[in-house]
Amino acid sequence: MAAPSEAPVTRQVSGHAAPAPVPSGPPSWQPLAAAVAELPVLDASGRPVLFGELFRERRAIVVFVRHFLCYICKEYVEDLAKIPKSFLQEANVTLIVIGQSSYHHIEAFCKLTGYSHEIYVDPEREIYKRLGMKRGEEIASSGQSPHVKSNILSGSIRSLWRAVTGPLFDFQGDPAQQGGTLILGPVEKAMAPHSSTLAWKIPRMEEPGNNIHFIHHDRNRLDHKPINSVLQLVGVQHVDFTSRPSVIHV
User: Fold this and answer.
1) 8, 80, 144, 223: which has the fewest C-beta neighbours closer than 10 Å?
2) Would you write out the chain's pLDDT as a tens digit for each of its 250 residues?
């Protein structure tokens, strides 16, 4: 039975990357509604997984994309694919992409982009709606994305070609649906020191739970968050996304 409708999460949390990966000020997070955490996503085999289970035990960067035929999403995910798994493991962080197509499109999209991290779909777009993801294009200057390599003409032609040559002629999602980026997962909780003399080195533990540490709603197809700025928020090493040709010294 569907859960009662709740107001979507719309507050931007920790919108600016700090120089250090661990914030020095008051904690900046908010709980994720249980009704959202209990919604299912589907993996590549169509198996349902509760959304909240994806990040209950450790933090996750969760990227919601528009649709799998969007050339901008494709090129953004191609850069997500370049993040070494060792970088994420060192920071104890998971990387997750969520689309809104049928699960049948997951395998082909991963093969196309080279993406090998976690990926799921929300075909009913219920989580998109509950998290306040926008529909339609908002006119806003988003600047030059470091992750988009194609211009609108060449990118659109390639997207159309993939649509007509694919096994199913569909948009692999709602073209009007925008995505967004979140950091979700446990909150670091300070433990009380045994004495005031030990206050300078208070041990820390992670408190499991579904919490939002950061949320960015894309206003239009070009408004995705630069990947390195998100990696910085969770203490993951920066990645060089430039595709310079190799120089061969003779």
Assistant:
1) 144
2) 444 444 444 444 444 333 333 333 344 789 999 999 999 999 999 999 999 999 999 999 999 998 888 888 899 999 999 999 999 999 999 999 999 989 998 999 999 999 999 999 999 999 999 999 998 877 765 556 776 775 455 545 555 545 555 555 555 678 889 999 999 999 876 544 444 443 334 444 455 678 999 999 999 878 889 999 999 999 999 999 886 443 333 3
